[in-house]
Amino acid sequence: MIFSRAKTQMPDPDKALAGRPDPIPTAERHFVNGRPLKGPWPEGMREALFGMGCFWGVERLFWQLPGVWVTAAGYAGGYTPNPTYEEVCTGRTGHNEVVRVIYDPEALPYEALLRAFWENHDPTQGMRQGNDVGTQYRSGIYWTDEAQRAAAEASREEYGRRLRAAGYGPITTEILPAPEFYYAEDYHQQYLARNPGGYCGLAGTGVSCPVGLGV
Questions:
Q1: Averaged over 102-109, what is the pLDDT?
Q2: pTM reported for the whole predicted model
Q3: Cα–Cα dist 58/202, whole Å
């Protein structure tokens, strides 16, 4: 299989697409639960941000977890302000397809989110997930505080040992401070609820993650 180097390497910041100053239009409410996509959210809710391939299936994975208040598909980790989907697909924005998860930590600890993250994609593939190839499909955890950072890094070490024992290569997941989140277009929000027969690229390794097993 031949991959385009232009789509599997991060662009130089000074050569990224210019983007635009204003956000692109998106949905106001979550298609599944009717909650406001951009808040306000109840007191005590926390934010998590994950990239693990095409965001359609990723968002469905997380909105189904008890304790998740609302989810949104979007773009993060690149250089272009307020990018469109078409721009992200060129590989010239540097953005990843990500899902923002607003959750109740009293009902759903962050470690349980990490377990869902690790077990539902292959974090060893670099700039791709299966047949989806490009910087927008890279594996990423974007933390919002030091507790999330520490938990994410510890889980990477633990799951990496499990993967190596199963014959997989090193984990390529980036773990970074949460960058600015740009909401994706309306038709991407809760896509698989609107289109139940639509494409879902989620495919785990089959290796269980011990993180979060006790919660």
A1: 98
A2: 0.95
A3: 7
d(C-alpha 58, C-alpha 63), whole Å: 9
Token output for 64: 């189904």
Q: Would you say 158 and 164 are in contact if contact means Cβ atoms under 8 Å apart?
A: no
Angle of CA points 207, 211, 215, to nearest 5°: 125
Which residue among the candidates 54, 89, 200, 209 is catalytic per the annotation? 54
Burial code of 84-111, b = ≥16 C-beta within 10 A, e = fewer? Answer: bbebbebbbbbbbbbbbbbbbeeebbbb
Map tokens 């759903």 to a residue. 108
Q: Rounded CA gap, 126 and 206, in Å?
A: 18
Is 89 known to be catalytic?
Answer: no
- Cα 83 off chain centre by: 16
Q: Is the pLDDT of residue 100 over 60?
A: yes
Q: What's the rounded Cα separation, in Å, for the pair 174 and 135? A: 12
Under the banding of pLDDT at 50, 70 and 90, the label for residue 211 is confident
**Per residue in 56-86, pLDDT tens?**
999 999 999 999 999 999 999 999 999 999 9
